[in-house]
Amino acid sequence: MTDTIIDAKIINSRLDVLERRADSCEDQHLIHRETNDNFRREVAEWRAEAKARDDAQASAISSLSSDVRLLTVELAKNTGAQEAKARIDEQSIRNWKKAAVIFGIIFGFITMVSGIALSQPSVTALISYGVESPHKPH
Fold first, then answer.
1. DSSP character for 68?
2. Signed CA dihedral, 66, 72, 75, 77: sign only
3. CA distance 52 to 63
């Protein structure tokens, strides 16, 4: 019977060791589960942060794209306005050139006629009638 008591003590002691190991394993399992849960939470946070960054970048790119589109439209309007102004300026310059040519012809004709008229002695006499020439003796 002493053998059975000794065997029972050995078995009880082994059972205690196994229970402690089981408890230890269970504790380690809980620790691993908690660690695993922490990792999952961190991964979820990282994914949320990455999504927020991606959304912010997409919004910034969309805004930039919209700004570029508006700038392109404004640039096209400005270019069109400059081209229209250049056409108007060209037309104005052409008009001034035409007027200058016409006035040049008119003044040239007047100069020619007056030169011819003043070279005639009778016209010169009419103009100088009653005006004493400083070169004539008195």
1. H
2. negative
3. 16
* pLDDT tens per residue, range 75-127: 888 888 888 899 999 999 999 999 999 999 999 999 998 888 777 777 667 66
Q: Which DSSP category does 132 fall into?
A: -
Residue 60: enclosing H or E segment and its boundaries? helix 2-119
Query: CA-CA distance, 85 to 78, in Å (whole number)?
Result: 10
Q: Which two tokens stand for residue 100?
A: 């200058």
Q: Quote the pTM value.
A: 0.40
Number of other CB atoms surrounding residue 123 within 10 Å: 13
Could you identify the residue written with the tokens 């927020």? 52
Q: For residues 127 and 86, give the distance between their C-alpha atoms in angstroms, rounded to a whole number.
A: 51
